[in-house]
Design brief:
Number of domains: 2
Shape: globular
Number of strands: 9
Helix content: 10-25%
Distance between the termini: 54 Å
Length: about 170
């Protein structure tokens, strides 16, 4: 890509030189000034780092958990703990930067293709009521169907599945 930019800069500079000065004048034309500005920007771009990881101010990537099976959705609680769904049906929690060894819940899901335990949302009043909403695929009469359910988190477990009003 840098070679293409350099070739483009060379062509732009050559075309700018043709229209740089007004006929019979030593003053640069507006086209000449604009061309030099664009050429300068392209030169800077041509010398920019090749990958985003090398660029100053690039986002820092940090692994926060390993050993998860098909992590799908996540949500933070008010305390800063992280809830994660695993497509095969487990809800996991990272508390104080540590993945808890036991899942909060294991739902009976139909983890086929892209289906399984998919979505996760904490109730706006989660710190008071412990409600956790999930979307998952299950089977009804041998056909996959999606379901939205509410679980209640208490003492590092999520249970008592209920279905919000339909």
């Amino acid at each position: 890509m840098a070679r293409v930019i350099r070739l483009g800069v060379a062509r732009l500079i050559a075309s700018c030189a043709i229209g740089r000065m007004a006929a019979g004048s030593l003053r640069p034309t507006a086209r000449g000034c604009a061309c030099r500005a664009i050429a300068g920007a392209l030169v800077l771009l041509a010398h920019a780092p090749a990958s985003p990881g090398d660029a100053p101010g690039a986002p820092r990537v940090e692994v926060v958990a390993t050993g998860l099976e098909a992590p799908w959705a996540l949500a933070f609680d008010p305390a800063g703990d992280l809830f994660i769904t695993e497509r095969p049906g487990r809800i996991r929690k990272i508390q104080k930067s540590q993945l808890l060894s036991a899942p909060l819940a294991a739902l009976n899901v139909a983890a086929i293709g892209e289906a399984g335990l998919m979505g996760l949302a904490l109730d706006p009043a989660f710190d008071r009521n412990g409600f956790l909403y999930v979307c998952y695929t299950t089977r009804k009469e041998e056909r996959p169907v999606n379901r939205v359910a509410r679980l209640t988190v208490h003492a590092q477990q999520a249970g008592a599945e209920t279905h919000p009003a339909r």
